[in-house]
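Sanity check

After download, print the first record. It should look like this:
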Amino acid sequence: MEKGNQSFVTEFILAGLSNNPTTEIILFVLFLVIYLCALTGNLLIVTVIQVDSRLHTPMYFFLSNLSFVDITYTSIIVPKMLELFLSPRKVISFVGCMTQVYIYLFLGETECLLLAAMAYDRYVAICNPLHYMIIMNKTACLKLAGIAWMCGFVISLIDIYITVRLPFCGPNYIDHFFCEIPVVLKLACADISLNEVIMVAGASLLLIVPLILVLISYFRIITAILKMHSVEGRRKTFSTCASHLVVVTIFYGTAMVLYMKPRSEHTTSDKAVSVFYTIITPMLNPLIYSLRNKDVKQAIGKTLEIKTAL
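Expected structure tokens:
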């Protein structure tokens, strides 16, 4: 597309993960299996939480939101990546790329806040158990989830708005397997200082602030656990938080590696971190929650028994 004497990009070329045809076939099979596992695991979590009345609690309400985010999150990236493994033309349209950027940011930012809400839920459950159902009532849960979704929607809208207004008139080669915003911004034919400032501010707001809230919640949780006299009580109480703590560590750790370092330090090795962050983590989350949670395992077993009987 041309405007005046300047041409503008209508599509981008994605580098992908490999240029070797044999390796691409192997990667296609591998990531197809991982994607199907992620979809199956997260859909199973959402289903059992809806079906089993014992799981109609604030903790599992947030978990079902998290699983829904993971389903959509991985679906905006992996199908296109699988297509590129088998296609000789590894391209994505400008509109498709910007759509991928927006939904990716929206869901990633929402997940940051959902994890913080889940930490607060565990804090109230352990440190204020007598008033738990009063504090974490249905309205409060809906408000916390609504804030997470709304903040993700609005902040990512700002990010994509200032990105699509940039002129992309030169190189269109994205050295990545999807349209990750730091890599896309490097291709703009304009000063991206404002974009970088807004990205750092957004990352600070949606990574650092929620992480601080999570750390404060777990500091108080651990303090409360250490005050318990019963060793068995300590073990059971901590086990209710262990799954969430593992997911928080994986998610925030990889996200901060990608988004909190200077733009000049972004390298091709970041693709490996992105694979873990965007594809592996959504597959691991349902495994972590189901393997370490007796209620979820029992609900899954019950649901599978019902389906088998039918």
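If your output differs, re-run the checksum step. Summary of this record's structure: Residues 94-127 form the longest helix (34 residues).
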